[in-house]
Amino acid sequence: MKITEITIRHLQMKLKAPFTTSFGTFTTKEFLLLEARDEAGTVGWGESVAFNAPWYNEETLQTNWHMLEDFLIPLILNKELNHPDEVNEIFAPIRKNNMAKSTLEGAVWDIYAQQTNKSLAKALGGTKVKIEVGISIGIQESIEELVALVDGYVKEGYKRIKVKIKPGWDVDVMRTLRESFPDVAIMADANSAYRLEDIDLLKQLDAFDLTMIEQPLASDDIIDHAQLQKELKTPICLDESIHSLEDARKAVELGSTKIINIKIGRVGGLTEAKKIHDYCEANGIPVWCGGMLESGVGRSHNVALTTLSNFILPGDTAGSSRYWEKDIIVPEVVAADGYIDVPETTGIGYEVDRETVEAYTVAKKNYK
Ligand code: OSB
Ligand code: MG
Predict the structure, then answer these.
(1) Which of 107, 145, 189, 332 is the most exposed place for a label (fewest CB within 10 A)?
(2) b/e map of 26-55 (b: 16 or more CB within 10 Å)?
(3) Ligand that lies nearest to the alpha carbon of residue 237, given by its number in the listed order
(4) Best probe residue, ligand 1, of 165, 212, 293, 294 (max atoms within 8 Å of C-beta)
(5) Among residues of the chain, what percentage have pLDDT more than 70?
(6) What sign does the CA torsion over 342, 345, 349, 350 have?
């Protein structure tokens, strides 16, 4: 396989409802969509999960464009590749910029799956035919509104409810949720909003039988999380802190995390995601697939990854209609009764709707 042409597009997609985390509010999702074409004319798609501002991590849509244009695309264009795992090695000398790397690597995986006549899920070694779906709910104006939202999602069949927390929107919120939904799997995601000195507050969350608490402390920390986990009953799940298999190994060895949220973009692509998955499986650490408010393309990659056997816990990959009036893939990703059926057709398993893509595109550039 040889990639001979790449197009990068900057898309803007309005979210159905604003999504608020401890670090900010999203109303419109801005991201890069990458289309790669090989010499046989096979087209593969990748999505950058970098946001328009460096809130979640240091990458942005513009830094990703720069890295792709000036460093990553030149390393791949017109190079003979036998397997997408090679992309991970080719990119290794370039430090970090994982979301940029993942954007192109994902498109190569899509092409590889099509060329070997497999679904992306099968190409990755996945076995599930359907995946369990959880939902991530942003910070709301009031606890009453949150309870009403959760009630609706529980009735829709979501297998696990995750709510965002931040100082001032934490213990009372989680207590109310547990009292209102005694039998539901509930977890909290702090997106790094606390410090070790908040330990007494975080310990109060132990009373609510949460499935886990995600990334309570600093986004680059694994030391304080180990300290915190020693004193906390609730399992810690790291998100922001894990960028590679090496990070995962160190965090697990230190006892900083009992569960890992794998985001393809954060770890630099599907090959690294699979490595982390395999390491965790061998070490008794359950994983689940995180979300970055992806469009259908990124979502389809998440669905495929989640078919690997150690994705034991429901992820954040909900159906397209939870986010968008109209997604860029046909059919859209559909969650029904808490499950998404994994597509069996080759590649990502969904058609990219070019007309809709063009309607959302605000900038584009071609490379060959
Ligand atoms: O930390 O998992 C996160 C959204 C934006 C940035 C970070 C996160 C999230 C989510 C939403 O939790 C997951 C989704 O529904 O895609
Ligand atoms: Mg998170």
Answers:
(1) 145
(2) beebbbbbbbbbbeeebbbbbbbbbbeeee
(3) 2
(4) 293
(5) 100
(6) negative
Rounded Cα distance, 324 and 355, in Å: 16
Omega cis (within 30) before 343:
no
State residue 56's pLDDT score. Answer: 96
Model pLDDT, residue 272: 98
Please give the distance, rounded to the nearest whole angstrom, from the Cα atom of residue 189 to the centre of ligand 1. 9
Residues in the chain: 368
pLDDT at 160: 97
The CB of 291 under 6 Å from ligand 1? The reply is: yes
What is the bridge-based pairing of β-strands 287-289 and 259-262?
parallel
Encoded amino acid at 88, one letter: N
SS3 category, 193: coil
From 292, 297, 301, the mutation candidate for ligand 1 (largest count of ligand atoms within 8 A of CB) is 292
Whether the Cβ atoms of residue 312 and residue 286 lie closer than 8 Å to each other: yes
268 lines ligand 1 (CB under 6 A): no
Ion ligand 2, residue ranges at CB < 5 A: 189, 214, 239
Q: Please report the pLDDT score of residue 246 as a whole number.
A: 98
Please tell me the predicted confidence (pLDDT) of residue 218.
98
Instruction: Kindly list the catalytic residues.
Output: 164, 263
Q: What is the per-residue pLDDT across 297-341, written as a single tens digit (0 to 9) for each? A: 999 999 999 999 999 999 999 999 999 999 999 999 999 999 999
Which residue blocks in the chain are alpha helix, DSSP H? 61-67, 73-76, 85-91, 98-115, 120-124, 143-156, 171-180, 199-204, 223-231, 245-254, 270-282, 296-305, 354-360
Q: Report, as ranges of residue numbers, the positions in the chain whose pLDDT lies below 50.
A: none
User: What is the residue with the minimal CA distance to atom 7 of ligand 1?
Assistant: 292
**What tens digit of pLDDT does each residue of 140-167 get?**
999 999 999 999 999 999 999 999 999 9
The residue whose CA has the least distance to atom 5 of ligand 1 is 292
Residue 214 C-alpha to ligand 2 middle, in angstroms? 6
CA atoms within 13 A on the CB side of 346: 11
- Determine whether the shortest distance from the Cβ of 136 to ligand 1 is under 6 A: yes
